[in-house]
Specification:
This protein has about 220 residues and is α/β, with parallel strands linked by helices. The protein contains seven helices and ten strands. The strands form two sheets. The chain has a seven-stranded parallel β-sheet, covered by helices on one side. Helix 1 packs across helix 2. The longest helix is centred in the N-terminal third of the chain and has 18 residues. The two termini are about 15 Å apart. The structure holds 2-amino-2-deoxy-6-O-phosphono-alpha-D-glucopyranose. The site of 2-amino-2-deoxy-6-O-phosphono-alpha-D-glucopyranose has 14 residues, from loops.
Length: about 220
Amino acid sequence: MNWETVADYAALSQRAAEILLAGIRRDPRLVLGLPTGRTPVGMYERVVAACAREYHCFRDVATFNLDEYAGIPRDHPGSYYTFMREHLFDHIDIDPANAHFPDGTAYEGQIAAAGGLGLTFLGLGGNGHIAFNEPGTPFTSRTRMVALSEYTRAANASLFPDGRVPTHAITMGIATILESREIVLLAVGPNKRAAIERLRSGEVTEEFPASALWGHRNVHVIVA
Ligand code: GLP
């Protein structure tokens, strides 16, 4: 695992955007795994700014979001589909047919048909979750419907001002994520510090989902 600590959120966003854009330059047909949440917003902002200058960035790229809430319409203001349109897809030249969201068991086949995940970015839950793989998730897990923990529902409640926070989501599994050829984990702020220290300790346990990343050969962790 390759660790990098940077000064602040702007620096983290800059580094992450550079890695993403370098990946596309290396392989214009890159298959990306993409996260939502507060952490990657700055990365997306910088990617959008760069791609407004070089307007072919995403023409042949395919993306697979890590997760999506279940039980709300795709265009709900709190959905990850809406999030991705607002922060990335509406501002770049991606073919909408190549921007995928988990909607059931077909997802694994779609990822495989696209050639498998090449570069996947992850945020980190304060409880160590990656995507919506909560503590206790088997490392062999694949894309499926999951119940959200109260911890995670509370952490994401601000996206649902009416108080109706979804109870379930569809998420890539840990095994799905680990098949990505390269993984970049982003973590920022005091709420993530304990989780980062636990990850750094090297203890590998299903009680702490992010620790599965120790079983992968090409993981870059960026902390601010
Ligand atoms: C959410 C998402 C995760 C995300 C995490 C951290 O529950 N499902 O994919 O990485 O929480 O979110 P944030 O970046 O807002 O702290």
